[in-house]
Amino acid sequence: MVIIDWLRVNWLYIAVPVLVFLGVFFISLWLRRLTYNAIERWLKERKTEINTIIVSVTRRPFLHWLLILGAYIGLRVSVLSPQWKSLGGKILASIFVAYLGWILVRLSKELIHLYLNRAKASDRAVAITMSIVQVTVTVVGILILLELWGAPLTPVLIALAAALAVAVIVLHDVFPSLFSGLQLAQQKQIKVGDSIRLESGEEGRVEEITWRNTQITTLDGSIIIIPNSKLMQTTIISDGKQPKMAKQPFQFSTRLHLKELTGLSASNLSQLSSRLQQVPDAVVYYHTHSFVEEYQFLTPEPTNDFALWVQDALGYDILAERLASIDTFEFSAIEALRQRIIGVIQDFLAQTSNEREAPPGNEFHFIKSISVVLPTSYIAHNLAEFVGILRRVSIGSLFFHIFEAKLRLQRGTNDFSLWLEDCLGEKELAEQITRLDPYNYTMENLRETIIHLCEKKL
Amino acid sequence: MNPKINVKDYESIVGKSYIEELTMLANRLSGKTILNINSTFVGGGVVEILSRLVPLLNQLGVDVRWQIISGDAQFFKVTKKLHNALHGKVEPISDDEFSLFLETTEKNLNQIDFSGDIMFIHDPQPAALIAKKNDIGKKWIWRCHIDISQPDSRVWEFLKQFVINYDATVFSSPNFAQELPIRQFFAPPSIDPLSDKNKELPAEAVNAVLAKYGLNQDKPLILQVSRFDRLKDPLGVIKAFELVRKNFACQLVLAGGTASDDPESEEVLAEVKERAGGNPDIHILDIAPGSDIDINALQRAATIIMQKSLGEGFALTITEALWKAKPVVASAVGGIPLQVRNKLTGLLCHSIEGAAYALRQILANPDYGRWLGHNGNEHIRQHFLITREIRDYLLIFLTLARREDVISL
User: Fold this and answer.
1) Which residue has the higher pLDDT, B321 or B92?
2) Which of A162, A181, A309, B31 could be joined to A228 by an S-S link, Cβ 3.0–4.6 Å?
3) Nearest to B104 by CA among B124, B84, B134
């Protein structure tokens, strides 16, 4: 009865705060609805995962925060004593701070999962990051609450600074890579599958980007793992395009050269011609390529040993010129080349009455070329890798794929053209390389010319 | 041996891919043992090569060993005669001397530990050790470092009875090939660009050596480095120099050394000194074995380097000269034409007058000399460094049993 009597007299003291609470609540609810509807419309047009997460996580708590806001304003307009108002305000503010902290933790959990999964972070990395965020939010929340309730902060701040210093020491190498990993994932400067070249000269294909490291398979097949922090500090050369992958990769081989002496020699043209008829193809190959190979660094002079010998030892300048002018590039089989050389010598002999003899010690010695072919670790999966490897392989590798593939292994053309056409569909480029006459280049010029042609296609 | 030698140090000279190829070959020889046998650990080109070859191959993972045959002074006098006769010089060699050679070989057959899979025998002195093949089998390769293009037939027939029992031979020049029923490989010898004799030297070190031997730093210097041996024709060099000196102010240095298996060199040195007489521009330097820095400095100080030999194995002194980018004037004998392509990497001559003519061309045209020297340096880098010789031997060891022309390993 006492309460009812009190209400009859003082109903206005209750009704005003309640009405203010309800008024604030409903107006805020209406504003929230307008705001969130606008945000959702905006999200429909540009759907980003981050914003969707923010909306879904905060939508319901926002309602609760409005309730707290309404209660706080209702409390402020009530006729309660200042002490009660202050106490009620602190309680409401504490609930709000705790609730906001909890929502921030939830929100960061969702965002961390999103980002670190993109960066292929390990479960351990996710757990560490989560813990860091939770601790940070909790600590900040507690500090705000302590401030709110007027508790002393200095000892807490000292303890926190110490804990922070320890954490920085323990995790000093983790953070740079982690944030660099996040940056890489966010900026998408490099992607898995990209062919890149680093400032340090390393070159290869990006195999994996994790939260701490990026793994690159170099052109020689070895794997290098670079911390993301270092990767972000270096210059990366990448065209950013996903290269066209070959149906089958090109495995570079190298060819080493052994010279076997046949014990056969010639001291005049007749002997040279008849011996040339008998010797194996490997001997003809040797004497038509040895000068090119030996002086490839110095002169693009596509002469052969027969021409040099008839000039130096026999003094037949005209025949030497005719032999030197035989275009080895025309031939795709050694037998045909052999017959052309013999034909030129025979034609000359038919017009010569007195054959000259080479001075003692200047006989022509028939040498056989033995090629030893080894697979290298260089494998090209696309044109960019092919160019990168071409810059590095030995001269022996170029000789094998260009000269020996065509003439000795009778593949019709060089290996590079075959692969470019058959496995990469680069018919025009293949034809351009096929048309190059390698005998008229020094090997380094030939290498550069092929690289230049390929680069125009990149 | 060379404990400091490191195969990685050669990368900057021949390129990374070259060393990678060597490693690939060496890996394929894993588990095999190669035993080198020659006649001395001191002096001469063979020792220079083996003292690098063995540690470098060991570093590449190949088990390579080195042993020498033993013999008294009389034995080495006989082997020197055999050496000269194989070079084409007429040498009276008695039956007793052939017997002494065989008896010493017999003693060595009982003393040497022939553990290994491939026996790599160097030069004629230990060639008769092939007799052991009947007992132990294995693969045997005879490496002939000397010029046997025109051997004394009696001596060659004596040696050939042993050589034909080998599985293969290796010669330094195509000219040295013989009619043999076994395989003959061609592998020119090489130099080590990092040895004391070939490494880069500061100008102060070069000048110090010139001062040490009383040489004029301002006068063009013509140099021949070789043992005091008649086959190197030191008297011919002096004559050529005298022809040139009529028109060009220059000085000649004949720098030589001796090897433990060369008892004749003292005699030749005395003859050369007598021929030089009191000419102040001719310097005869008797350089002790091991003075490699001195030789290196002299070569780097030289304006032109000569090798006017009458006969040569390969002439590593020419390789050293070309490596130092020096213009060379050399006789077209033995392995010299393999290194000196006339007018491209140096100048070849066939006579004393021809040598003088070539010297004058370079003295009068220093730019031409520099161009020849540059070409020569690159030619050596590509074909005559120790890395290439190692590669050749690895290839021979690996393909000895294969007969194809194109071999996939």
Assistant:
1) B321
2) A181
3) B124
Host H or E run for residue B91? none
Question: For residues B186 and B57, what is the distance between their CA atoms, to the nearest angstrom?
Answer: 20
Confidence of residue A6 (pLDDT cuts 50, 70, 90): confident
Pair A303, A423 in one domain: yes
Count of other CB atoms within 10 angstroms of residue A79: 12
Give the pair of three-digit tokens for residue B227. 């043992």
Q: Per-residue confidence at A207, pLDDT binned at 50, 70, 90?
A: confident
**Cβ contact (<8 Å) for A373 and B409?**
yes
What is the ipTM for the molecules in this complex? Answer: 0.85
Contact A261 B185 (CB under 8 A): yes
Tell me, yes or no, whether B405 lies in a domain.
no
Number of domains into which chain B is organized: 2
In A280-319, the residues whose Cβ lies within 8 Å of chain B are 280-282, 294-295, 297-299
Average pLDDT, chain A: 85
Interface contact A259-B18, CB threshold 8 A: no
Angle, CA B377 vertex, CA B175 and CA B205 arms, to 5°: 120
Are the C-beta atoms of A405 and A422 separated by less than 8 Å? no
Mean of pLDDT values over A270-282: 96
Which of B19, B23, B405, B407 to probe the A interface (max A CBs under 10 A)? Answer: B405
How open is the CA angle B86-B91-B95, to the nearest 5 degrees?
95
pLDDT digits (tens, 9 = 90+) for B141-179: 999 988 888 899 999 999 999 999 999 999 988 888 888
**Confidence band (pLDDT; 50, 70, 90) for A174?**
low
Measured distance CA(B256)–CA(B307) in Å, rounded: 12
3-state DSSP assignment of residue B309: coil
Which residues from B are below 8 Å from A281, CB to CB?
405
Residue B187 binned pLDDT confidence (cut-offs 50, 70, 90): very high
Strand ranges in A60-159 using DSSP code E only, listed in sequence order: none
Asked whether residue B221 falls in the same domain as residue B176, the answer is no
How many angstroms separate the CA of residue A204 from the nearest CA in chain B? Answer: 17
Higher pLDDT, A303 or B68: B68
What are the structure tokens assigned to B345, written together? 């990497």
Question: B406 contacts in A (CB within 8 Å)?
Answer: 370-371, 373, 404, 408-409
Tens of pLDDT along A299-314?
Answer: 667 789 999 999 989 9
Domain that holds residue B316: 203-383
Q: State the Cα torsion B143-B145-B148-B149 to the nearest 10°.
A: 100
- Assign A214 to helix, strand or coil: strand
Is the pLDDT confidence value at B53 over 60? yes
| Minimum mean pLDDT range among B204-208, B310-314, B385-389 | B310-314
Residue B153 inside a domain? The answer is yes
Beginning with the edge strand found earlier in the chain, give each strand of the sheet holding A195-198 in spatial order.
A223-227, A213-218, A203-209, A195-198, A236-237
Same domain for B225 and B369, yes or no, is yes
Q: Print the domain residue range for A220.
A: 189-242
Q: Compute the distance between CA of residue A109 and CA of residue A107 in angstroms, rounded to an integer.
A: 5
Same structural domain, B145 and B294 = no
CATH code, domain carrying A200: 2.30.30.60
Instruction: Report the range of poorest mean pLDDT among A200-209, A366-375, B90-99.
Output: A200-209
Residue of B nearest to A284 (CA): B405
CB contact (8 A) between residue A376 and residue B20: yes
Interface of A with B in 377-416 (CB under 8 A): 392-394, 396-397, 404, 408-409
Residue A183 lies in a domain: no
E strand or H helix at A400, and its extent?
A: none
Cβ pair A144, A234 in contact under 8 A: no
Which of A203, A260, A262, A400 would best serve as a mutation to test chain B binding (most B beta carbons within 10 A)? Answer: A260
Beta bridge partners, B349, equal B331
